């Protein structure tokens, strides 16, 4: 029907005390990098656990790779790196990677070739006989990433993949994520770090309190949430800044932030300053950062929830 | 390759390759061997000599010095003052002395006292008491003018020959051996359940706290993970036991080499029921011979076969419960203690029934205990040592085995459901009520 690798339809998961996931639906396009965002306790982990087949939804269906999700067989096509990293501390790194790969269904020989390939690529070859407890946090993070993508999964789920990594290694992993996506893998990326989301993701879904509150393309969302603000810079301070075409929001010497009034366009603003013969060095629209949108939406939905809660009381 | 097998293999290899495994597997039997060697060494070797002087003012204790042997020596002396004896005690030449007053009536009830400088241990006291009573007893019998033959026949304890309906001779030694073997194997299973059960529990807790459980469970069903762990650790236990049994067998075969006296004692000492002083050691060697012959009457293939069955059955039954508890525990290992209680209770209860069952294998509590799957692994071992059908009728054994298999399936099913939820739950410690709820959650 379409190019979706994963479709969630009206998923619900209720625990005794809370609705962890309350009627969430979305779909993830094949080969895209998808951001699943939400504050702590929003239901992200529950959602991811349902997608990985660790737990089952109370209601709703998951379609994976063109058919109903079958945890028994489909887990081999999924690589999951949970937020809480876990490795056997006393086990040697090579053996550990081999063991986890075999659990995903690879044969020993296949697994060995792939581990060698990845270890070489990420400069981990000398680690083979070290134990996990001897590794730094960043190093074990790299190992965890390798074990997640080793079996060439169609769907890679990464929960906070960069936490604890230095910028060099973070970049290394980021490039690998892009490369895997180019090769056709679909990546679900769950994080609180909005600047990473802006940089990496094509499409995002924001959840809070078990409900989806935002779903869309990163660019579209920014357009949707823009406040019609523009930034203008000049080489010297303009003599006049009062005009019917715009309102000044802030002025900082040679720099103006303005909102354009109804019925006027950006050209009217520019014309005003051109007529003054001041030299314009920069003119651009201010788009909200995902961070701002995130905070605004989460606060709104929480406010709504607590208002509702008070009303019930 | 099946994933359960992969998991079991990892569990097995990581444990077997540890240094502590080699240490406990090889060192423990050596320690046990050394311990028994010491006991035997001390029991074969005549201990410290205890010299007791008897100041025989009544002239009762004639002609006894030549018959002395063993640890305790009575020296009959006359016309020695107590101060001289006190002196001898100080010089450690004698341990103590008994004064028999001149007018002492051998048939009377007057108590005598033994003086010594230090307090004598309870076992030695008992020995001295017994030996002195024997002395007095013989002298009393002599005072009645009985001859040697009459005295012997009075002193001959006519032992009862216990025979079962099947006409088998059932010697005391055999009953003792059955008791010992039953108690030992029951106790062994008790220990196994605890050692390997807690090993499973700690393994599960480790996985949960390392947070690797979530990674594994995204590729393997929780049930497979649990079963892999249980079979892997069970294989470790089985291997450890096989090594122990082989080692113990080799060492017991070597035992006579180290202690030639032991073999001599069992073979060479003739039976002399008349000689009172030799009687004790003769009795000992007779018992030893009895033990040897009784040991050979025990049906070892049956015993070992049932032992392995109940070892595995009991382990599998309890291991899944231990795994469920491990999965429910969070950061604080102390939580395990309180959650373990409902599991340790039936094991301890079984131990209590077992101590009754070794004495009376056909009592109703023993029959119940050996059929009920939570207690049968321990209790049945106590009964089976008495043999079939004396200790346990065949049908009861078969029913017990069937119930154990059923019990194992039931606890595993229940534990797997608790495990599946618990392994992913973080936060506060669950109560048993909550865990019970998990067991009946759908999916």
Automatic annotation (TrEMBL), chain A:
<keyword id="KW-0547">Nucleotide-binding</keyword>
<dbReference type="GO" id="GO:0016887">
    <property type="term" value="F:ATP hydrolysis activity"/>
</dbReference>
<dbReference type="InterPro" id="IPR003439">
    <property type="entry name" value="ABC_transporter-like_ATP-bd"/>
</dbReference>
<comment type="similarity">
    <text>Belongs to the ABC transporter superfamily.</text>
</comment>
<dbReference type="InterPro" id="IPR003593">
    <property type="entry name" value="AAA+_ATPase"/>
</dbReference>
<dbReference type="Pfam" id="PF13732">
    <property type="entry name" value="DrrA1-3_C"/>
</dbReference>
<keyword id="KW-0813">Transport</keyword>
<dbReference type="GO" id="GO:0005524">
    <property type="term" value="F:ATP binding"/>
</dbReference>
<protein>
    <submittedName>
        <fullName>ABC-2 type transport system ATP-binding protein</fullName>
    </submittedName>
</protein>
<dbReference type="Pfam" id="PF00005">
    <property type="entry name" value="ABC_tran"/>
</dbReference>
<keyword id="KW-0067">ATP-binding</keyword>
<keyword id="KW-0536">Nodulation</keyword>
<dbReference type="InterPro" id="IPR050763">
    <property type="entry name" value="ABC_transporter_ATP-binding"/>
</dbReference>
<feature type="domain" description="ABC transporter">
    <location>
        <begin position="6"/>
        <end position="234"/>
    </location>
</feature>
<dbReference type="InterPro" id="IPR017871">
    <property type="entry name" value="ABC_transporter-like_CS"/>
</dbReference>
<dbReference type="InterPro" id="IPR027417">
    <property type="entry name" value="P-loop_NTPase"/>
</dbReference>
<dbReference type="InterPro" id="IPR025302">
    <property type="entry name" value="DrrA1/2-like_C"/>
</dbReference>
Automatic annotation (TrEMBL), chain B:
<feature type="transmembrane region" description="Helical">
    <location>
        <begin position="302"/>
        <end position="327"/>
    </location>
</feature>
<keyword id="KW-0812">Transmembrane</keyword>
<dbReference type="InterPro" id="IPR013525">
    <property type="entry name" value="ABC2_TM"/>
</dbReference>
<keyword id="KW-0472">Membrane</keyword>
<feature type="transmembrane region" description="Helical">
    <location>
        <begin position="21"/>
        <end position="44"/>
    </location>
</feature>
<protein>
    <submittedName>
        <fullName>ABC-2 type transport system permease protein</fullName>
    </submittedName>
</protein>
<feature type="domain" description="ABC-2 type transporter transmembrane">
    <location>
        <begin position="19"/>
        <end position="416"/>
    </location>
</feature>
<dbReference type="GO" id="GO:0005886">
    <property type="term" value="C:plasma membrane"/>
</dbReference>
<keyword id="KW-1133">Transmembrane helix</keyword>
<dbReference type="GO" id="GO:0140359">
    <property type="term" value="F:ABC-type transporter activity"/>
</dbReference>
<feature type="transmembrane region" description="Helical">
    <location>
        <begin position="394"/>
        <end position="416"/>
    </location>
</feature>
<keyword id="KW-1003">Cell membrane</keyword>
<feature type="transmembrane region" description="Helical">
    <location>
        <begin position="364"/>
        <end position="382"/>
    </location>
</feature>
<dbReference type="InterPro" id="IPR051449">
    <property type="entry name" value="ABC-2_transporter_component"/>
</dbReference>
<feature type="transmembrane region" description="Helical">
    <location>
        <begin position="339"/>
        <end position="358"/>
    </location>
</feature>
<dbReference type="Pfam" id="PF12698">
    <property type="entry name" value="ABC2_membrane_3"/>
</dbReference>
<feature type="transmembrane region" description="Helical">
    <location>
        <begin position="233"/>
        <end position="259"/>
    </location>
</feature>
<feature type="transmembrane region" description="Helical">
    <location>
        <begin position="181"/>
        <end position="201"/>
    </location>
</feature>
């Amino acid at each position: 029907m379409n190019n979706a690798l994963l479709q969630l339809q009206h998923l619900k998961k209720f625990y005794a005390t809370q609705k962890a996931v309350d009627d969430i639906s979305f779909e993830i396009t094949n080969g895209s990098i998808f951001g699943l965002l939400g504050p702590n306790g929003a239901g992200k982990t529950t959602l991811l656990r349902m997608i990985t087949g660790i737990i089952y939804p109370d209601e709703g269906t998951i379609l994976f790779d063109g058919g109903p999700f079958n945890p028994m067989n489909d887990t081999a096509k999924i690589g999951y790196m949970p937020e809480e990293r876990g490795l056997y501390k006393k086990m040697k790194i090579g053996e550990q990677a081999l063991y986890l790969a075999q659990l995903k269904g690879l044969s020993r020989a296949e697994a060995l070739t792939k581990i060698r390939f990845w270890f070489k690529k990420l400069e981990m070859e000398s680690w083979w006989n070290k134990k996990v407890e001897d590794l730094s946090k960043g190093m074990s993070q790299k190992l965890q990433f390798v074990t997640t993508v080793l079996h060439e999964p169609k769907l890679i789920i990464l929960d906070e993949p960069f936490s604890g990594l230095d910028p060099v290694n973070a970049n290394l992993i980021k490039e690998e994520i892009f490369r895997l996506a180019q090769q056709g893998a679909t990546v679900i990326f769950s994080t609180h770090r909005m600047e990473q989301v802006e940089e990496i993701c094509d499409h995002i879904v924001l959840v809070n309190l078990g409900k989806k509150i935002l779903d869309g393309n990163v660019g579209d969302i920014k357009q949707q949430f823009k406040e019609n603000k523009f930034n203008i810079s000049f080489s010297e301070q303009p003599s006049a800044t009062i005009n019917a075409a715009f309102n000044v929001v802030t002025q900082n010497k040679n720099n103006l932030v303005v909102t354009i009034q109804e019925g006027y366009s950006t050209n009217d603003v520019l014309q005003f300053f051109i007529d003054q013969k001041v030299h314009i060095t920069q003119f651009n629209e201010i788009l909200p950062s995902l961070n701002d949108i995130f905070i605004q939406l989460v606060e709104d939905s929480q406010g709504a929830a607590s208002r509702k809660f008070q009303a019930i009381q | 390759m099946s994933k359960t097998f992969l998991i079991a293999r990892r569990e097995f290899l990581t444990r077997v390759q540890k240094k502590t495994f080699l240490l406990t597997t090889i060192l423990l039997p050596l320690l046990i061997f050394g311990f028994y060697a010491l006991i035997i060494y001390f029991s074969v070797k005549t201990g410290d000599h205890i010299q007791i002087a008897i100041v025989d003012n009544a002239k009762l204790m004639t002609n006894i010095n030549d018959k002395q042997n063993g640890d305790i020596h009575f020296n009959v002396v006359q016309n020695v003052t107590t101060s001289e004896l006190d002196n001898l005690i100080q010089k450690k030449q004698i341990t103590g002395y008994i004064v028999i007053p001149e007018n002492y009536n051998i048939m009377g009830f007057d108590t005598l006292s033994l003086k010594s400088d230090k307090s004598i241990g309870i076992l030695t006291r008992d020995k001295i008491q017994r030996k002195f009573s024997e002395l007095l007893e013989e002298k009393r019998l002599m005072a009645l003018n009985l001859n040697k033959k009459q005295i012997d026949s009075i002193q001959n304890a006519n032992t009862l020959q216990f025979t079962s309906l099947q006409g088998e001779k059932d010697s005391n030694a055999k009953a003792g051996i059955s008791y010992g073997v039953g108690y030992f194997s029951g106790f062994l299973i008790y220990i196994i359940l605890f050692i390997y059960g807690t090993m499973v529990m700690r393994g599960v807790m480790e996985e949960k706290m390392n947070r690797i459980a979530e990674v594994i469970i995204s590729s393997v069903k929780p049930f497979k993970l649990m079963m892999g762990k249980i079979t892997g650790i069970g294989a470790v236990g089985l291997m450890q036991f096989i090594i122990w049994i082989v080692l113990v067998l080799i060492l017991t075969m070597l035992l006579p080499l180290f202690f030639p006296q032991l073999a001599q004692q069992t073979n060479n000492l003739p039976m002399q029921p008349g000689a009172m002083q030799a009687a004790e050691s003769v009795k000992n060697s007779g018992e030893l011979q009895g033990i040897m012959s009784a040991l050979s009457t025990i049906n070892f293939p049956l015993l070992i076969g049932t032992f392995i069955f109940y070892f595995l059955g009991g382990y599998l039954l309890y291991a899944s419960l231990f795994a469920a508890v491990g999965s429910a525990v969070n950061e604080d290992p102390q939580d395990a203690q309180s959650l373990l209680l409902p599991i340790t209770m039936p094991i301890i209860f079984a131990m209590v029934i077992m101590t009754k069952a070794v004495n009376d294998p056909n009592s109703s509590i023993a029959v119940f205990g050996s059929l009920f799957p939570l207690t049968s692994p321990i209790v049945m071992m106590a009964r089976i040592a008495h043999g079939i059908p004396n200790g346990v009728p065949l049908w009861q054994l078969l029913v017990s085995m069937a119930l154990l298999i059923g019990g194992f399936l039931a606890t595993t099913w229940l534990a797997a459901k608790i495990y599946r939820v618990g392994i992913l739950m973080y936060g506060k410690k669950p109560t048993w009520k909550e865990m019970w709820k998990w067991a009946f959650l759908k999916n």
